[in-house]
Write a structure and sequence with these properties.
single chain, 16% helix, alpha+beta
Length: 299
């Protein structure tokens, strides 16, 4: 009887130890096991090749923003109303509400730059580089409302964007300093575990971050981080630094989603040909009107 009791006690104790150990190694709620991405063939690095897209309203405004009737507004009898130039767009020209992607929802402008940002916003129709189909720059190219493709090799990673046929090469090897400043800058990458870290410099200072007038100078320094979360998701994090415009570095963060259509491919959006009138219409012998006059305006 005594031996039977001792054996039973041993079984219970063993079961308790096994249970405790299993709980210790089991992920707790909200803490899933770390995802390990598929490797690029012949390497130890994650394979990020694919077509991706950001699904948010960051291109309208990086910060939290409410819906409004148009990007270009002017004072009205009961509040702001669309400017004459965008009246015909109706709801198509409106701005959807959006949750911001800026850490802390604050962009730390220097006082003069905050005033410049406000002026940019008020003159969006004539100043936003996107309207003129200029190359979008980094990081804006990532969250424009179009897919983009990552093509990865061992020492170079190319990113191809639909908008304005923009491309950039991320150099995973040493190529030395950029010989000239450009719209898309020079991108130099490295791996930190499964995260692709990209250091981007040598900008020409002529791009914006969004349609809300957020801008930078030629001193812009961007550090991007692409981290695989699953086979279908990347976390995109960016640290932005520009001592000419901002009082300190600041960050944005958003997920990127893999496009899964079986027949998906990038389509060219050479939008320059669609804005020729905007850019060169003033050279006509008889220029077209720059303002809509046939639509009645509420004063």
């Amino acid at each position: 009887m005594r031996n039977h009791f001792r054996d039973w006690t041993l079984v219970v104790a063993t079961a308790a130890v096994v249970t405790i150990l299993s709980l210790a190694v089991r992920p707790t709620a909200g803490q899933p096991q770390a995802y390990r991405a598929a490797r690029l063939e012949g390497t130890a690095y994650p394979n990020l090749t694919g077509i991706w897209q950001a699904l948010n309203t960051a291109n309208y405004d990086l910060q939290h923003h409410a819906a409004r009737p148009a990007l270009a507004l002017r004072p009205g009898p009961l509040g702001p109303v669309p400017m004459t130039e965008v009246l015909a767009l109706g709801a198509v020209g409106g701005v959807p509400a959006g949750v911001g992607v800026v850490e802390g929802n604050e962009i730390p402008y220097q006082p003069w730059a905050a005033a410049q940002r406000k002026e940019n916003s008020e003159n969006w129709l004539t100043r936003d580089p996107e309207i003129k189909c200029y190359l979008p720059g980094v990081p804006r190219a990532t969250y424009l409302p179009y897919p983009f493709q990552i093509i990865q090799s061992t020492n170079k990673i190319m990113i191809v964007y639909e908008f304005a046929s923009a491309t950039r090469t991320i150099h995973m090897d040493d190529v030395g300093p950029s010989p000239v400043d450009t719209w898309m800058g020079q991108s130099v990458g490295r791996w930190e575990g499964d995260t692709l870290v990209v250091d981007v410099t040598s900008f020409n200072g002529q791009t914006w971050f969004d349609r809300a007038g957020n801008f930078h100078s030629d001193a812009l320094h961007v550090v991007e981080r692409y981290t695989p979360l699953s086979a279908h998701h990347l976390m995109y994090e960016v640290t932005i630094e520009d001592p000419k415009v901002f009082t300190r570095p600041w960050k944005i963060r958003m997920p990127l989603y893999r496009r899964m259509e079986s027949n998906l491919q990038l389509s060219e959006y050479k939008c320059v040909e669609f804005v020729e009138e905007l850019m060169y219409g003033h050279l006509r012998k008889v220029p077209l009107p720059r303002r809509l006059t046939a639509i009645p305006v509420i004063q």
